[in-house]
Design goal:
This protein is mostly helical and 1068 residues long. It has 38 helices and two strands.
Length: 1068
């Protein structure tokens, strides 16, 4: 009972040997204990002094408090705070710890402790009277509480004695009476419980027997009974009361299962469905689910489930499950599609579309059934279901069904898109027939969906155009996916066809002209259509084909009219009965029975490969018929077959028509590229395709000094060659660039006997034709003519279908067809020009073809003595001129018989004309090779010799030499062959004036030779150098200056023309 201020504070004595941590902890605890009672004691004693009323005591206490506060002012502030004093003491200690300072700090705190203890003792003694009075009051209260406890115990003992005597008997009688009343009430309650149990049992029987209306009635009655106030106090009915929600959930589940059966089952039970609707009409609004939403949910779930089941049915692992036994449950659609063989794609797609189409038909049927049943209910036919609530349910479900059409078709579209995206459409794993079947099936499904959505929101007033565009947009997901997959498939087909065409035809073709009739057509219009299986056209299908708006009330389709039911992937045929896979490119298939066959002797001997026909019987009259039929080879026929396949794809895929047409253009340009690479020697091809990048000349346009560019002569000659056929060069470079950027499918690697992946560079590797240097075949002359002319024959046949091709393309792209033919005709003409030019040069240049080659002729002529001034005894080159004339006569006899007389007469004339051009150029080379030693008299002698050659050439190569062999194309015997147009920049090089001008240049003034060279850039740089050396041979300084100026001029000229040639004028 001693108050806080009277406690004596003892500060423990801390020795110097203690650790600093324990020292600080002891000091902190002591000072905290000292400060708290000191402050509290001051406040307590001041109040006690006031209550006692002693003036002396209060004044003494006040004085003592003020003295203590004054003394406490010298203490550190940390002892008056609530923070951890020990932590602060330890933190303030310097490291390493100084033991002497620690002892000094302990002594200081000990002095503070003694002072505080003295103050506490003085305060207790100053308030001693108040302490004694408090103790007396506590003793008096304790005495009174003891007396009260004794009285309470005596009262309880006396009450217990009275209870044993009077109250217990009366209480026993009362308890028995109340027990009897409770038992009677319990029996009444139990009888009511039996009624509730019977309702519950009846509810279970109705659920088991699918009596939904009675079950709902029993459930409502049971709910009302259990909800009565008299049953609220019985916890025994708690489980039954809680089970009511389970019963209603069971009813809802049963009704939902019934809706699922009605929505997707093959057979529709109208009575059962109406029973379900009546049950929904009897349910409370908070318990009844939306019938339309439930139907939509079931249809959506079934769409996904049916898609998975169809994929699993046709999966390769469906018969042989993987280890674990539950792979088919865990596998997703992509994994199932990966395990499916491409041969099963058509059957899987047909089966899936059959089920999805049945869902659409059932949805339409439900809409019509609700309309019919609602009309009957409105008429008040007296049936039990004809009540307001049931009619309201019929109307609500009909509205929800009409509104859910969009969602149903949307889910079907999304699922079909997913399935199509997971299937791997790659050729040749998926055949062209199978792809067209899938395309046909999907387009049929789209038409069925458009028919299904035709009357969506029929009450909204719309114009015919907006309505037509709206009902077409519902199938956009499927159309977009189909377009993407069709594009991927066609690209794989395109690349495989491309590689197969090169490997099996371009590289294996003998390039012999095929004996075909005059009216033989490489491409026929009746082969551009595919006879797909006939399908039942819906109202929307017929409207879409005719461009009319579909009816607002299309007829309801049934499962029996499902176009996918029992679908058989039969082989597709052309209208003329040719199989799609076999194609139409065969020669026998390309000629109808009514085609006229050329009746001349060579045709039958050619077909029979018979050598019995004597050579002397082969005359110009027998060969004249070769002009009448198109010039085609096996590769040309196969290319036409590929183009027919592509054009069929254009009709089957209108949305990809432009892409397919561009792929067909790529094939044509590839064929041009192959013909060029096959029938042109590498040195000519490299010069023709060379990139003419030149070094810029010195600043200010001054001519270069020092050593000239060593590559300038070769670049100049390449430029002259490129200017001859610029469009051909652009097309070939464009085709090479396209092929270089290709990444071929893995399926192409096997055809190329290479390991995947394979780039498009393999398509650029075309080996030259083996007979290009063969003297016996005139350097493959007939094969070159077949290859060059076959392009023109193909384009001529294609041009007959230009309007048909334009109709297949979108309106904005139809001009591409016209641009294609304009461009390709120019390319074909230039291809023939370039190939025949190279062929003519090879025939004259390759040794052993004739008696003497041109190179040997020019070398022999330039080695003769041309420095003489008197040629009255004749030209020293006369014998060699006669040899060349004899070779010309021999070639004139051999060319018409080349290839068994397969070269058209017009083509023979063109070849003769290019040979004449090559002889003209070689005559110019003879003059240049003679150098400075030739005299002016020698130039005149050479000119006379060249006139003899010219007369011999014109005698044999002009139309008069052909005798009676005419050309049915209308080319008269007096017409000259024009190799290039008159406005062509290289026209002068194809004339004898090319030689005459060069001879005349040797007679001009030496100072004017530079101007002449700049005016005639069509001459190679070596010819310019030769004439400059001839005229300026005595002045080396002027010779170098003129030659430098000419080089500078040609450098800028090449750069300017090269930029023009590098411009792509494709326009497609």
């Amino acid at each position: 009972l001693v108050p806080g201020p009277c406690r004596t504070l003892r500060v423990p004595c801390v020795r110097t040997s203690a650790s600093p941590t324990r020292l600080a902890a002891g000091c902190s605890a002591a000072w905290v204990q000292a400060l708290e009672p000191l402050d509290c004691g001051t406040r307590h004693m001041d109040s006690a002094a006031g209550s006692s009323g002693g003036a002396s005591s209060s004044s003494a206490a006040g004085a003592a408090g003020r003295d203590a506060a004054a003394k406490l002012g010298s203490l550190p502030e940390r002892f008056a705070s609530v923070e951890d004093v020990v932590a602060k003491e330890l933190k303030d200690l310097a490291h390493p710890w100084d033991l002497a300072a620690i002892e000094e700090r302990i002594r200081e705190y000990s002095v503070f402790s003694e002072k505080i203890n003295a103050q506490l003792s003085s305060r207790v003694m100053a308030n001693y009277n108040e302490f004694v009075q408090g103790m007396q009051q506590v003793q008096a209260v304790e005495t009174e509480l003891t007396l009260i406890g004794v009285l309470v115990k005596n009262g309880r003992r006396k009450l217990q004695e009275r209870d044993l005597g009077l109250v217990r008997g009366s209480m026993h009688v009362t308890r028995q009476h109340k027990k009897s009343q409770r038992l009677t009430s319990l029996l009444d309650t139990l009888s009511e419980f039996q009624g509730v149990v019977r309702m519950h049992a009846r509810l279970g029987e109705c659920l088991s027997s699918d009596n939904y209306c009675e079950a709902i009635a029993q459930q409502q009655a049971l709910q009302e009974a259990v909800a009565a106030e008299k049953f609220q106090q019985f916890p025994g009915l708690l489980s039954l009361r809680e089970g009511l929600s389970g019963h209603i959930a069971n009813v809802q589940q049963k009704l939902s299962d019934g809706l699922r059966v009605a929505a997707v089952s093959a057979a529709f039970d109208a009575e059962r469905y109406e029973e379900i609707l009546k049950a929904y009409s009897m349910m409370a609004p908070d318990q009844a689910l939306s019938v339309g939403k439930e139907l939509l949910r079931h249809v959506t779930e079934c769409i996904v489930a049916v898609s998975r089941q169809c994929m699993l049915m046709f999966s390769a692992d469906s018969q042989h499950e993987r280890p674990g036994g539950d792979w088919h449950r865990k596998a997703n659609i992509r994994e199932l599609a990966g395990c499916m063989e491409p041969t099963q794609f058509v059957d899987c797609t047909a089966r899936l579309y059959e089920h999805l189409c049945d869902f659409l038909y059932r949805h339409q049927f439900l809409c019509r059934w609700h309309e019919y049943r609602a009309k009957e209910a409105e008429s008040g036919d007296g049936q039990p279901g004809s009540n307001d609530r049931f009619r309201e349910v019929l109307r609500d479900v009909l509205t929800e069904l009409n509104s859910s059409k969009r969602n149903v078709w949307h889910h079907i579209s999304q699922q079909v898109s997913l399935v199509l995206m997971t299937l791997e459409f790659q050729y040749p794993a998926l055949s062209e027939e199978s792809f067209l079947h899938i395309l046909h099936l999907t387009q049929t499904l789209i038409e069925e969906g458009d028919n299904f959505m035709a009357d969506y929101q029929p009450g909204v007033a719309k114009s015919a155009a907006s309505s037509s565009s709206q009902w077409r947009q519902w199938s956009a997901p499927i159309k977009n996916t189909l377009k993407s997959k069709a594009h991927d498939y066609f690209q794989s087909l395109h690349h495989n066809a491309w590689v197969g065409f090169k490997v099996a035809y371009i590289e294996q073709d003998s390039w012999q002209r095929l004996p075909v009739a005059r009216n033989y057509s490489l491409i026929r219009k009746d082969r551009l259509q595919v006879s797909l299986p006939r399908r039942d056209g819906s109202a929307v299908a017929s409207a879409a084909s005719s461009g009319q708006q579909p009816d607002a009330e299309p007829r309801v389709r049934t499962a029996e009219s499902n176009p996918f039911r029992n679908y058989q992937a039969e082989s597709l045929h052309h209208p003329n009965g040719v199989s799609l896979e076999e194609g139409s490119g065969g020669l026998g298939r390309g000629v109808e029975a009514s085609d006229e066959v050329d009746e001349h002797a060579l045709l039958q001997h050619w077909i029979d490969d018979n050598d019995a026909l004597p050579q002397q019987q082969i005359g110009s009259s027998m060969l004249s018929n070769s002009n009448r039929s198109p010039v085609v080879s096996s590769s040309t026929v196969e290319l036409a077959h590929l183009l027919e396949r592509y054009f069929r794809m254009m009709t089957a895929l209108p949305q990809l028509a432009l892409d397919v047409f561009q792929s067909a253009v790529q094939l044509v340009e590839f064929y041009v590229h192959c013909v060029l690479c096959l029938f042109v020697q590498d040195r000519h091809l490299q010069a023709f395709l060379q990139d003419l990048e030149v070094v810029s000349q010195a600043p200010g346009g001054s001519p270069p000094t020092g050593v000239s560019d060593p590559k300038l002569p070769s670049r100049h000659e390449a430029l002259l060659l490129q200017r001859l056929c610029p469009e051909l060069r652009r097309a070939v470079l464009r085709a090479r660039e396209c092929m270089s950027s290709l990444s071929l499918p893995f399926s192409c690697a096997s055809m190329l006997n290479m390991q995947a992946p394979v780039s498009g560079h393999v398509l650029l590797q075309v080996a030259p034709f083996s007979k290009l240097t063969s003297p016996g075949s005139l350097c493959g002359l007939s094969e070159r003519c077949v290859g060059a002319e076959s392009v023109g024959a193909l384009l001529s046949n294609l041009k007959e279908f230009s309007s048909w091709l334009g109709d297949q393309l979108p309106k904005k792209d139809r001009e591409a067809v016209d641009r294609f033919f304009v461009q390709q005709e120019a390319i074909a003409q230039q291809l023939q020009t370039f190939v025949l030019r190279c062929a003519a040069s090879d025939v004259l240049e390759v040794p052993h073809v004739g008696r003497v080659s041109l190179d040997h002729f020019s070398n022999t002529m330039q080695a003769l003595k041309w420095d003489a001034r008197d040629f009255s005894s004749g030209s020293p080159g006369a014998p060699y001129i006669e040899q060349l004339k004899g070779q010309i006569d021999e070639l004139a006899r051999r060319i018409p018989c080349a290839g068994g007389g397969s070269i058209r007469y017009a083509t023979q004339r063109t070849i003769w004309a290019w040979m004449e051009v090559r002889i003209v150029h070689e005559c110019v080379e003879v003059i240049a090779k003679c150098g400075r030693k030739k005299s002016q008299e020698a130039l005149q002698c050479l000119a006379d010799d060249f006139q003899l050659i010219r007369a011999a050439v014109q005698q044999n190569f002009r139309p008069g030499a052909a005798g009676e062999a005419g050309d049915e194309a209308g080319v008269g015997s007096s017409e000259e062959v024009q190799l290039v147009p008159a406005d062509h920049p290289m026209f002068q090089t194809t004339q004898w004036a090319y030689l005459d001008q060069f001879i005349e240049a040797h007679g001009c003034l030496p100072a004017d030779i530079g101007v002449w060279c700049k005016r005639h850039p069509e001459y190679p740089l070596r010819l310019h150098k030769a004439v400059i050396e001839y005229l300026q041979g005595s002045n080396p300084k002027a010779q170098r200056q003129i030659y430098g100026e000419v080089e500078a001029f040609l450098t800028s000229y090449i750069a300017e023309v090269a930029r023009e040639l590098s411009t792509d004028r494709r326009g497609l």
